[in-house]
Design brief:
The structure holds two protein chains of two kinds.
Chain A: E1 10-16, E2 19-28, H1 30-45, E3 50-61, H2 63-78, E4 82-86, H3 90-99, E5 106-108, H4 114-125, H5 137-140, H6 145-163, E6 169-176, E7 179-185, H7 188-200, H8 204-211, E8 215-217, H9 229-235, E9 240-248, E10 251-260, H10 268-287, H11 294-322, H12 326-340, H13 344-353
Parallel strand pairs in A: 2-3, 3-4, 4-5
Antiparallel strand pairs in A: 1-2, 6-7, 6-10, 8-9, 9-10
Helix pairs in contact in A: 1-2, 2-6, 6-10, 11-12, 11-13, 12-13
Chain B: H1 7-15, H2 19-28, H3 35-42, H4 50-66, H5 76-80
Helix pairs in contact in B: 1-4, 2-4
């Protein structure tokens, strides 16, 4: 697993006076973000409400990583605390701005001075005025996981629109509550294009969603499929459309649509990029466990994180108590739990409880 | 090698546990690899670290226990001794 993001990810915790300083080196994605979130949640539980994170070593943060970060930042804001982030790389700043995460953190340079924040905020606004679909970033960060997923999909849409040459607009269509809807769109024109397809009941987006494969039309003027939809698209000056299916567990859930006013706009290179963005969007949907309701999904995630934290604490206790490495400590827990015939979590709870003999279980 | 089913994968199939459900169990006990990497391990496209292997073994064994069974999937240390 040499190319595993975990291998390239390290985290440090130091205290400057009473204030915890967390440093991050490497990529924050779904896997590593949970460790980052674990540390921040741990500090929060220990009563530290003012936390500083130094992101100078951050190399990448993906949409799923941003989701987890947003949850922690929301929690810190919820208890009246502040999460100050230092040395955020320029590209990451833009992603923070697009998803609305910048509304929940304080940007610091060397000291968290209020005037720095105003300057940073202004910087984040540059170049984002055209992303109309991103209005109300704070609303996008509401605690519902559906809204977090939509924020992540908007990020993918914006990045695809900015990256794919000749794309004049990008949207994501999903089936929700039994009907198709556009959950992310880079501008109003693509929103209308999507709507034309839903209303006529035909088009590349609908076919990609129904059949789970790409639909590409390189010249709408010569297109014979979709006779009701094509004239409406031509009226709007659209000549090429590429729709790629979004899949979760082999089932098509929706489509990523790219529109262009040029004919033959999307060649091999653009189609490869479209596939890449469709894959990223699909992963966001898969991670969100669409076979569960939002509540079940949140509960499962919360319970899993809580179990992880307890097991990590127990691991830390054994490392300190028996002078073991992290790996040796976790494997001791596994072996002992099996010998005693209890779950790993139950054994971890016992180990952590042994630190406080007064409130020991049973 | 490719013809022999990995013992972890064999256990997973025996339990009718989806890769996703296995990953959640693995994640809950501290696993750090992604679902895709776990799938790669099960299909022997990726060699797990000893700790990752044992975490998957624990995740599977705990499901066997819930169903009234024993701990049939060995840990890495068991195989050595």
């Amino acid at each position: 697993m040499s190319d595993n993001s975990v291998d390239m990810f390290t985290m440090g915790l130091a205290f400057v006076g009473d204030q915890p300083l967390v440093t991050v080196v490497g990529d924050i994605d779904l896997v590593t973000a949970s460790s980052f979130a674990g540390v921040l949640n741990g500090l929060l539980n220990d009563g530290y409400h003012t936390i500083v994170a130094d992101l100078a070593g951050l190399t990448f943060v993906d949409a799923r990583g941003l989701n987890v970060l947003a949850e922690v930042a929301t929690r810190i804001a919820g208890v009246g605390g502040t999460l100050t982030v230092h040395s955020v790389p320029a590209f990451t700043r833009r992603m923070f701005g697009i998803t609305g995460l910048s509304e929940l953190v304080v940007f610091g340079t060397s000291a968290a001075r209020p005037e720095d924040r105003a300057a940073d905020d202004q910087q984040l606004r540059v170049g984002e005025t055209d992303t109309t679909a991103l209005a109300g970033p704070q609303r996008a960060l509401a605690r519902s996981s559906t809204e977090l997923i939509d924020a992540a999909l908007r990020l993918v849409t914006t990045l695809a629109d900015a990256t794919v040459e000749n794309a004049d607009g990008v949207s994501v269509t999903l089936e929700r509550h039994g009907r198709l809807m556009t959950v992310a769109a880079s501008n109003d024109e693509v929103l209308t294009m999507d709507r034309h397809q839903y209303e006529t009941g035909e088009g590349p987006c609908l076919d990609a969603k129904a059949l789970g494969r790409n639909f590409y039309t390189e010249s709408l003027a010569e297109e014979t499929r979709w006779p009701r939809f094509v004239p409406l698209a031509l009226d709007q000056g659209i000549h090429s459309i590429l729709s790629s299916p979004l899949m979760t567990r082999d089932r098509p859930q929706g489509a990523l649509n790219m529109y262009s006013s040029a004919t033959r706009a999307f060649g091999t290179r653009q189609q490869e990029l479209a596939a890449l963005f469709a894959k990223q969007a699909s992963e966001i949907l898969t991670t969100s466990a669409p076979d569960l309701t939002d509540d079940e999904s949140n509960q499962r995630f919360g319970a899993s994180l809580a179990a992880r934290q307890t097991i990590h604490q127990a691991q830390g206790v054994l490392m300190a108590r028996r002078h073991l490495t992290a790996d040796a400590a976790i494997r001791s827990i596994f072996h002992e739990a099996r010998e005693v015939g209890i779950t790993v979590l139950a054994h971890a709870i016992d180990i952590v409880a042994s630190l406080h003999p007064d409130d020991r279980r049973s | 090698m490719g013809d022999i089913i990995d013992p972890l994968e064999k256990a997973r199939r025996g339990l009718s546990l989806s890769v996703s459900d296995l990953w959640w169990r693995y994640f809950a006990i501290g696993g750090m690899s992604s679902e895709l990497e776990i799938e790669a391990i099960l299909y022997q496209a990726l060699v797990p670290t000893d700790t990752d292997h044992d975490m998957l073994a624990v995740a599977l064994n705990e499901r066997f226990s819930e169903l009234g069974g024993d701990h049939p999937v060995p840990y890495t240390d068991d195989q050595v001794s």
